[in-house]
Amino acid sequence: MAPRGATGRRSLVPGVDLRDPVEAERARRIGFAWRSIRRGAGMQALREYMHGTGPDSIELGEMDTLDVLIQRDDWRMSDLADALKVDPSTATRAVQRLVTRGFVARRASDADGRVVLARVTSQGAAVHRAASKRRAVVLGRILADLEPDERDVLATMLERFAAEIDIVAAQLAK
User: Fold this and answer.
1) Domains in the chain: how many in total?
2) Structural domain for 169, as ranges
């Protein structure tokens, strides 16, 4: 684990010495796996299966947005941006694409007419439901070869990995 500064937050000092050949090899393997997950040849086929190829197909960013929007009835753009970990203008553009496709509706807040709220439409919910089912099939097949305790360890490690990415990204942005 990386050293912690006076605030208790990890500093940007690497916690793993990549001059060590064993650690360097582990880092290389992790980096290669990460790239393969993001860009591997099989990912295009999986994305097409999970998100469709017809008129109701959905882009990865659109699916990410629907994944968040589906969690509750109405979202303020600023809350959506926070949940997606993006700039508010990025969230607004994502919602606009979904509005254009009929998957999301926008309206002014009853409490404050200056505030715009976004909500998934019935068409958007149906597209999300279908894509979620296909995604579950893919994940079920990918994870089938792992034992239940291995799946638990993988889930825990991926959650920690994602959290560390957010921490380092925030530190680098300062």
Assistant:
1) 1
2) 56-173
